[in-house]
Design goal:
12 helices, mainly alpha, Abi_system_AbiD/AbiF-like, Abi family protein, globular
């Protein structure tokens, strides 16, 4: 049995079949695409991590100044039911680890979807009164809520695909990576500078276009 067949068994046929489809049945090429997908996923980790951490911390710091450190417990502020459930789960998880559910621990336990939901249309009024302070363009000009919420939607999906080891090579990765870096710059120039110094995406992404045979997999995102 070839190495390609052994790897196919380890990955499951369903997972590897997508790469075989992109490789028009060429197993060696499929393995190359799978390897490239893994390397690209790894190379995006630093940017995705910093985006999530800087977004949550900027929101928490800004909201704490106006509404107190426990602002996330206030259901007049947190309007969406799924967010209220996320807060309850985060508190339960922290307590379940035998720790006190301090604001810092709860904030760290909340998911990326909680933070991106804070920029949804449901929070336009909160954006106008408070959340607009979380980010600013390098020239000092302010931002609209949708300047962040629009690009964050596909970025969150991409982040989740990476976390669940799903294919991402059919996506427009340079565009999403560039947008993620831009948002980080708006949130924290220092965090942006750190990302530029340590992120390897630009060196990993192929200079030439990634050629994929037609497939049912998501494309053009």
């Amino acid at each position: 049995m070839t190495k390609e067949h052994e790897l196919e068994k380890a990955l499951s046929y369903e997972r590897f079949a997508r790469y075989e489809g992109w490789a028009a049945g060429d197993r060696a090429r499929a393995l190359e695409l799978y390897t490239l997908n893994a390397k690209l996923s790894e190379s995006l980790y630093i940017t995705m991590q910093m985006l999530e951490v800087s977004l949550r911390n900027r929101i928490h710091t800004t909201m704490s100044v106006t509404h107190g450190e426990d602002w996330f417990k206030n259901n007049t502020l947190i309007k969406l039911a799924h967010q209220q459930e996320q807060v309850a789960k985060a508190i339960s998880d922290v307590n379940g680890d035998g720790k006190e559910a301090t604001p810092g621990r709860v904030v760290a336990a909340l998911t990326f979807s909680f933070w991106t939901s804070m920029l949804s249309p449901d929070y336009e009024t909160l954006w106008q009164t408070t959340l607009f302070r979380i980010a600013r363009k390098p020239n000092g000009k302010g931002l609209r809520r949708k300047d962040l919420s629009g690009p964050l939607r596909p970025i969150r999906t991409l982040r989740n695909r990476i976390a669940h080891h799903e294919p991402i090579i059919a996506w427009n990765l340079p565009s999403h990576h560039s947008k993620a870096l831009e948002i980080i710059l708006w949130l924290s120039p220092a965090a942006h500078e750190w990302c530029l110094a340590h992120c390897r995406f630009a060196s990993v992404y192929p200079v030439e276009r990634i050629e994929l045979a037609p497939s049912d997999e998501i494309n053009g995102q």
